[in-house]
Design goal:
- The chain is built from 8 helices and 15 strands.
- With 342 residues, it is an alpha+beta fold.
- The chain folds into 2 domains: 200 residues, Alpha-Beta Complex (Nucleoside Triphosphate Pyrophosphohydrolase), CATH 3.90.79; 131 residues, Nucleoside Triphosphate Pyrophosphohydrolase.
- Strands 1, 2, 3, 4, 5 and 6 form a 6-stranded mixed β-sheet that branches. Strands 10, 11, 12, 13, 14 and 15 form a 6-stranded mixed β-sheet that branches. Strands 7-8-9 form a 3-stranded antiparallel β-sheet, with no helix packed on it.
- Strand 10 and strand 11 form a beta hairpin.
- The two termini are 19 Å apart.
- Bound molecules: zinc ion.
Length: 342
Amino acid sequence: MDPDALPLSRAGIDRAAHLRPGGDHLRAALADGATRVLLVSDGAVVTSTGPRVALLEPAQAAHLAGMAGTAGADGTERMDDADDGGWLLLGRGEAGEAYLARRVAQRRPAPPVGVPSDVLVHPVPAGPDPTPERRALPDGLTWTPLRDMGAELSADDAGLATTAVALDGWHARHPRCPRCGARTRVAQSGWTRVCVADASEHYPRTDPAVIMAVVDADDRILLGHAAQWAEGRWSTLAGFVEPGESLEHAVRREVAEEAGVVVGAVSYRGSQPWPFPASLMIGFRATAETTDARADGVELTEVRWFTRGELADAVRAGDVIPPGRASIARALVEEWFGGPLS
Ligand SMILES: [Zn+2]
């Protein structure tokens, strides 16, 4: 599987990690008119028509972020200068220009009780609308969830937006030290948090998850439907890798748990960052050794084998909605199918 065929896996710009320490490059970039900045908040970035990621000059980004409201009186983070985590150094372009992300805080209510903090298979329950402040943008600019437009972005835009959404989400969810609970400060141009009490360093998290096209001896594919999904939505099986587990074991365990099917050979196909909120999806083709499939009733309410003809007919009739175009699930299904699904 070609990584460039996966929308959110495109390489994008040079990350230039050697420019992060000390923050000097970030501070200099804020004073450089050639620097370009994207605005990021809670899985969304500001876009212009196209869609294109809106790349702004630092002063304009600061102005718009200010309009969006970053005051800390109600407990949200203040993000006012280069050292407070409001600005993230994403990388540099071919002419050496810096690319930054400006985080825009939201006044969010407390998360709902009892909902997992990291959700993979099931969509995150719909949150409240963004605050009116966050929506205040000039004509032609709009907040767009990365998940909705990932398949339509250029490689550079996709790389910038995916990195910005992933990093912003990590900062938002990890304000405190996991060792002692003290406050942390941002370092390394937005790529590290350091505990103010014990000086321990903490790095952005990525949670590995396996996702697999399970295919049987008759070349049928196994797809599942989750209760929380829209009616008709079917996708490949997927799940988080557990501590102490190899990727191959995770594939076999998840398929057994969710569908009761025994998997033999497992082969790697490709990977995709999936920052909703912090996953790396690692894609496989898995060979089924049994075909008696039954949904676990917990994560999935239905599982079913499809031949190519059955899937094509079901998609055409509108009975099956395939995975979204930005997802590796779609790529895995289409690789098996032998071409675009619709
Ligand atoms: Zn600490």
